[in-house]
Amino acid sequence: METVIGIDIGTQSTKAVVIDHHGRILAEHSQGYRVDTPRPLWAEQWPDVWWEAVLRCLQTCLKAPGIDPRGVKGLCVSSLYGGSGIPVDAEIRPLHPCLIWMDRRAEAQVQWVKEHVDMARLEAVTGNGVDSYYGFTKMMWLKAERPDVWERTRYLLPPNSYINYRLSGEIAIDHSSAGNIGGIYDLAARTWSTEMLDALDLDRDKLPTRLVESGATVGGLLPALADSLGLCANIPVVAGGVDAAMATLAAGATRPGNHVAMIGTSMCWGVINQSVEPGQGLISMPHVLNSGRDLYTFGGALTAGASVSWFVDTLCGEDRIAAGEHGSAYDQLEPPARELPPGADGLLFLPYLMGERSPVWDAQASAGFIGLSLYHRRHHLYRAVLEGVTFALRHNMEAGKRQGVPLDSHLIVVGGATRSDLWMQIIADVTRMPVYTYRENVEAALGAALLAGQATGLIDLDQPLRHGTLIERAEPSEAAARRYDDLFALYCRLYPTLKPIMHRLNINNTRASETTS
């Protein structure tokens, strides 16, 4: 049987899937690891951890029952947003850990850009703004704070580009990964921006010269590696791209207007479009499918499912005890929370537990419950957390609508949040859209496998995808939607009102920590 393999390098684990010509998953395996956080706000990873996980996932999948390694026609790699990229020397040996998407150390560089660069021009060229999330600010940090590493750096490679080099011996960067760096990529011309590189004082020669579509073949699988895995030598290694766009493709987003919300530890909502309206606070890059024409514009909340986990872990010990050995605190919280009216009897929650990304873009934003009284119990707070994260989703969707592309009339949701019927109903009511989910597990690794299938002729992505079963989970209630419209308006007023206090508290906390240390 002919198959292809998709690999996704995630923040906390790598996963590989083997699929057939229908897109059905025949084998899968994941390998976990940790993020290094040597200082507050720092988040970095050594790429050898990723490479070892890739090899383990491939080896395990290829040993699965019914999988013929000689029938594998190609493979493709999706990866987390690698921020700065991996600094490698002329021999492509890593010189420093990769400063990944959640790293926030480049705040001084952000301030420098705001003071010295024409922001309107930067947004017009790149379709993106400035924040320590973006890779170009992290590159600036490396140049300023690690000059010895910068001097020895030959390339700055996104995670999938580095893994593709280990697989094929070829250096290339896909357009989605290049665009997501922000700041230095010309979104209209689909190439590096010499103008912005000069303005930011970054070195053009440290960027890969070969830019390719996500579905393009970078090179052939190295013979020695193929032999060790039992695969055929020189099968196509397909470029791949950023995991959020890959997961959106896996959920069936192939045309302008298609949009998907991924809600796991964090939240990411993205829409396919063909033009960008700068200044809306969203992130834009070429899509992983038809990247010469289509864009993937997305926004995200740093703590979505993480807000729910934090609440349960911190405040719901009694519910854990009541649930017993085979239950969960969620089983205790969901039924009473479901009986509450929209708004959880007068509560609002700001889900900014680690600052916030779009459209707020504030590393000093903080979370809070507003409206608490002695009447409220844990299930009130639980529902308020679900609603607060959903308001953050709508906040990004409203910014997306201002891009001018008509959204599909329904919303597809993937990720761990889909396990909650209550949350799916809240999302339908808050967004005023029917909510659909997949019966199967739809993730970025599947999106990578679909691109590998297209590149090898095994799958035609121009045809309706048949790799999963969409099911309708919730229809919006007009009465609930009207109430949520009012609450969302209040939610949008909370951040600008509380921002000065959030920042003052952050400064005081930083000073106290410095005094203590």
UniProtKB/TrEMBL annotation:
Residues 261-454 form the Carbohydrate kinase FGGY C-terminal domain. The keyword Transferase applies. Residues 4-249 form the Carbohydrate kinase FGGY N-terminal domain. GO terms for molecular function: kinase activity. Signal peptide: none annotated. It comes from the Bacteria. Keywords: Kinase, Transferase. InterPro entries: ATPase_NBD (IPR043129), Carb_kinase_FGGY (IPR000577), Carb_kinase_FGGY_CS (IPR018483), FGGY_C (IPR018485), FGGY_Carb_Kinase (IPR050406), FGGY_N (IPR018484). It holds the Pfam family FGGY_N. Belongs to the FGGY kinase family. This is FGGY-family carbohydrate kinase.
